[in-house]
């Protein structure tokens, strides 16, 4: 295995670069076609040779070595000073924080069969806080949402999820906002952090988990840290952007009045960027919620765990019920945070009629919330959510009924659809990738990387291909690659159709955009549930879920690209006698080329992370390897290698499409 | 290149009062780019045009070797088209942009030598600036915007509110104290900017194209407002504009810039009456000359046959205002200053100006 490792870098460029240089000036398309033809011809000849396939229980030396590392770290955990004084301390602090919040709202504490604050208190606090930072409408929504979760019989799970989300967001913002302000003020620091943030955001959520458990063990601490890593980048980025977006004149005006740096920061920059920063907090919360549900894979408590367990036993009803609770929580958190970011503006506009009353009302609200907290601390009826979750079982059985009905009545349709796509597109493509000799696929990938993304992207691709081979997960990586590419192609089809439609029509935009925004808020997990009901546990389910997960972002980017085409250009084309089709194909799409490449980039990244999550419902390949690594210690090393392979695929995709996007916009 | 027009002196302009200048700028340079500080030192690089300098060194010289004095109470206008370096120049005066070379002497102190604390103190008490795009704080009410500079100084809330209220009334914003900037029109917002600048009772007000973003009618109102305020509070003002009519309307003296260099510095009638070069001539071509030129510019020495018993007028009377008197008199009007006959003006001279027949001087 390791002996052949050198080969890809050497053979690959030698084979592919020669035609590229000569023909590049002619046409990129011709070169791409040539590469594909050569690949197909060689595939026909060499099919099934040197495919580097690895049976699911087999391990390579690297995997065993990872296992050994894991074991030795496990053994050293309480003796190695680095662990003793660093990682263990961090774990302790985070654990304490999480436990504190859990004992407050979700888990029984010492000497009490119930948490310190019962359901009534939590609902009261949620309502009060939502009202104070937002408005009374979102306060009602928050209270109704939480009560609904209780009725679903998922109170404790919801509170666990909430506790993890709150602690992760708290820790994330503790770092993210100061770092964001710094990045906003200092160009140099901004240049340093940007690549890190890019990298953190391109990595599929999944792959953080394994390495983190290596250092922080399985459990809430690892879950929180993984969530912090995932939730901090958007807040850092948006805070930096907000600081940079403050008009230069305003800062200059403060300077000209003799403000010190501190005064300028506290009185001008921070107040003026507050609204955008709150949007960053919103993003951070949503990312945290999405990640907290996924961390169920490393034994984090909460709704995610219910979903994962139900998915693994293919219990659609239970998964749907818990998924619904996640959706409700996502909607509540999103609405409240959005209301918080717009509150000040609306208050400013209303002429301050209620401003005089606000303080006493806030005080009264606080007292009311405290009374509820006291009641829920003292009386059982206010502490334990009443009822036995009949609403939840009704939802679950209704979902089950719907699933059965769909499977009985729609199976012809859905299976037909699934089989057509699987046999017509997915299987041949996957066979081409997995059954070609690895060096052939590698060479083709590098060739495409060079042609589409340029030399530097080609080099990155070559390195990634080499490392992919080294992980020993080549064959599984190719299966995942096949699913991702097929899903991305379909995402782009949707993206172009709906994006152009939205870009051309304000009405369609107004109708679709809220749905798309809402769709983007959902944690990726949730998407699996309905498609599991429709298509059963197959690769295809993961692909459809990935398409639904990735399409909104692609559609929005393309719509914005089409809208950004100057009105006059479209007018000029119309006056030249173009019909609608010609305007779309000859003016609007070519002119939004950079948006198209950007949409492809984002689409690929989203799809990749979802296809991997699909490992849970039978998508197999890398996603399955990662999940198996969490649950079986002998597969730990393999899971880690699979995670690495996912990162490599992500980096490869990202570099090529980014380079292509830069070229398109140049 | 530069012409400090000396020829005909006007008697009453403030800069002739003999007072020491408030601001005195000497050999001021601002160069952007790599190794910018080498440019002003090199005789050879100084001689290049902006384009050549860019090609040679990759540097942009925004302000090149500018020097002028501003007298107490004067309205000094810097005029030029976009890219002429005027906005950079005014920012160099308060070091919002750090000058590359030269001196900016303010009340005898070279502010380029001031350290950060001293500079801040100067900005808090001596200068203030009004910006083209207002630079107001959208999250503060008008009154809090106006008192912002006082707040930064550390003045108590009661005192700064009282002072801000005075200034708000001075600029005609009474009744809008509790509005937010976004609720005001552009003209009103700029009044807030003006009030904020006045609140600290500075010695010098800098205006960076303050009215360029406003509608023409509102711009005229605001110009009149500045004239009124100048009469009332008598501050020294340095005013940047790209609009010649604005410059002529407001400026006691006008400095014309082009590509970072001074082209001409003088009173309005000097620019119109004696343009330094074709650039200035082209600029002032469309100015109604009768509104700007004074009798000093059109009088001629009395010839032998002239009757010298006509009515008398001062040399600084604007042609437009003298027209009726000259045309009504059947003899040429005598231009007299301090009892001394400077020259005479007849119908012909007046008509030449009013009818626009006089070619460029």
Précis, in short:
By secondary structure, chain A is mostly helical.
Structural notes for this entry:
The complex is a heterodimer of chains A (666) and B (361). Chain A is mainly alpha-helical. Chain A folds into two domains: 2-66 and 410-665, MetI-like (MetI-like fold); 80-346 and 354-402, MetI-like fold, CATH 1.10.3720. Chain A is built from 29 helices and no strands. In chain A, helix 14 crosses helix 17, helix 22 packs across helix 24 (539-564) and helix 28 (621-631) runs antiparallel to helix 29 (636-665). The radius of gyration of chain A is 27 Å and the shape is globular. Mean pLDDT of chain A is 80; it is low at 1-24. Chain B is α/β, with parallel strands linked by helices and 361 residues long. Among the domains of chain B are: 3-15 and 70-98 and 115-126 and 202-287, Rossmann fold (3-Layer(aba) Sandwich); 291-354, CBS domain Like, CATH 3.90.1280.20. Chain B has 17 helices and 14 strands. In chain B, the strands form three sheets. A seven-stranded mixed sheet of chain B has the order 1-11-10-4-9-8-7, with helices on both faces. In chain B, strands 3-2-5-6 form a four-stranded antiparallel sheet. Chain B has a three-stranded mixed sheet with strand order 12-13-14. The two termini of chain B are 18 Å apart. Mean pLDDT of chain B is 84; it is low at 1-17. The interface between A and B is medium-sized, with 22 and 34 residues.
